[in-house]
Amino acid sequence: MRSRVELRKVLAMAVFLLALAGVACEKKETATFKPEVLPLPSPLARYEAMEIPADNPQTPEKVALGRQLFFDKRLSGDESRSWYSCHVCEKGLTDGLPKAIGAFNKPLPRSSPTLWNIGYHKMFYWDGRSPSLEKQGMAAWQGGNMGAKDHEADIIAKINGLEGYHSQFHKVFGGDATAENMMQAISAFERTITSGNGDTAWDRWQAGDQSAASEAAKRGYEVFKTAKCTNCHDGLLVTDQQFHNVGVGMDAPEPDKGRFNATKKEEDTGAFKTPTLRDIAKSAPYFHDGSAATLEDAVDFMLNGGKANPYLDKKNLEKRTITPEQRRDLLEFLKSLTVDCRLSEPPLPQK
After folding, report:
1. How many CB atoms lie within 10 A of CB 213?
2. What does residue 80 show for φ and ψ, rounded to 5 degrees?
3. What angle do CA 178, 51, 237 make, to 5 degrees?
4. Cross-strand partners of 244
5. Which has fewest Cβ within 10 Å: 2, 163, 225, 334?
6. Confidence (pTM)
């Protein structure tokens, strides 16, 4: 009789231990990192197809990984900032500073440009010195923006030491994280940062919704075209992706030579890449040096024909006289380009 009681106790203990093990397994499974994988966004309906590098095709899993890295401050040399820190929604995907501040609080020479539709661009940085998003990303990571120079090995080891990232990199790239494939993932995500499929009032109006834009904005668009702003800010991207000298900063003792630094061609002196006007109302201050504090200041500078200098692009820019009413309408049109930004931080691996 006693042996039966003891046997029952042993069996009960065995059942309890098995149940405990099951709970532990369940907790371990629950704790496994699950990335937020989303469908790839639709391409811009009214623009040419985006050129995707053959060695870096888009996949939902790669974009999800890149989105995590884009938001992860652990990629910076001092863990103080992420890519997103320089391109935030409420500032029109800029940082809202006249000139950017990098890791270790390093002052940088130019402002942070917006990222809207960056995947459709051909050259990168204000001076166009990088030919691809991947190369631009590497330069920003190792340079003053993210301050990873001399810390690359430690940062990569940190990423590979996180099981969530480790499993993702092996699934997406077939191996551990490297500097190169981290930039490929981030670039893949950046190619999904698009605007033009109905996310601004102007787009919805252009697509046929007459109620989407105000009458003032519609009049302002006509002023925009009449004043020849479309010489440089044209098409769905609202930029020609070219480089122009409009005189910004050319009165400085040692002016930033812009595109000249990349090409060494004298005619490129003081020329900078035309920024898109998408989300322009939120991305103050303006120009590559942040010298225009408000949108009104920037508009007035351009209407005045820029700042005279030997390299001024007089072919595309000349003084335009408009009435105060037309100026107000023009500003309303620019505000109709405000984007419904929905970039959000995803869950990040913590172990």
Report:
1. 23
2. -95, -20
3. 115
4. 272
5. 2
6. 0.91
Please give the Cα distance from 169 to 175 (Å, whole number).
6
Strand partners, 88: 94
Does one domain contain both 252 and 293? yes
How many domains does one find in the chain? 2
Look at 80 and 16; give whichever has higher pLDDT: 80
Q: Which residues contact 279 (CB under 8 A, 6 or more apart)?
A: 92, 93, 114, 116, 195, 337, 338, 339, 341
Give the H or E element holding residue 302: helix 295-303
Question: What's the Cα-to-Cα distance from 89 to each of 35, 96, 106, rounded to whole Å?
Answer: 22, 10, 23
Contacts of 225 (CB under 8 A, 6+ apart): none
For the chain, the farthest-separated pair of C-alpha atoms sits apart, in whole angstroms, at: 108
Q: Is residue 350 a part of any domain in this protein?
A: no
pLDDT digits (tens, 9 = 90+) for 168-226: 999 999 999 999 999 999 999 999 999 999 999 999 999 999 999 999 999 999 999 99
User: Domain span at residue 156?
Assistant: 60-190
Domain endpoint, select from 122, 156, 190: 190
Q: Which helix (H) or strand (E) holds 63?
A: helix 60-71
Q: How many CB atoms lie within 10 A of CB 163?
A: 14
Helix (H) / strand (E) element for 189: namely helix 179-190
Using CA atoms of 202, 203, 207, 210 in order, give the dihedral in degrees to the nearest 10. -30
| CB atoms inside a 10 Å sphere around CB 186 | 27
User: Which stretch of DSSP H or E encloses residue 272?
Assistant: strand 272-273
Cα(268)–Cα(243) distance, integer angstroms: 8
CATH number for position 288: 1.10.760.10
Sign (positive or negative) of CA dihedral 96, 98, 102, 106: negative
Say if residue 195 is exposed, middle or buried (CB neighbours under 10 Å; 0-12, 13-18, 19+): buried
The pair of structure tokens assigned to 71 is: 């938001």
**Of the candidate ranges 1-5, 66-70, 192-196, the one whose mean pLDDT is the lowest:** 1-5
For residues 308 and 268, membership in a common domain is answered with yes
Give the distance, in angstroms, between the CA of residue 62 and the centroid of all CA atoms in the same chain: 16
Q: Following CA atoms 10, 15, 16, 22 in sequence, which dihedral angle do they give, to the nearest 10 degrees?
A: 150
The secondary element (H helix, E strand) that includes residue 111 is: none
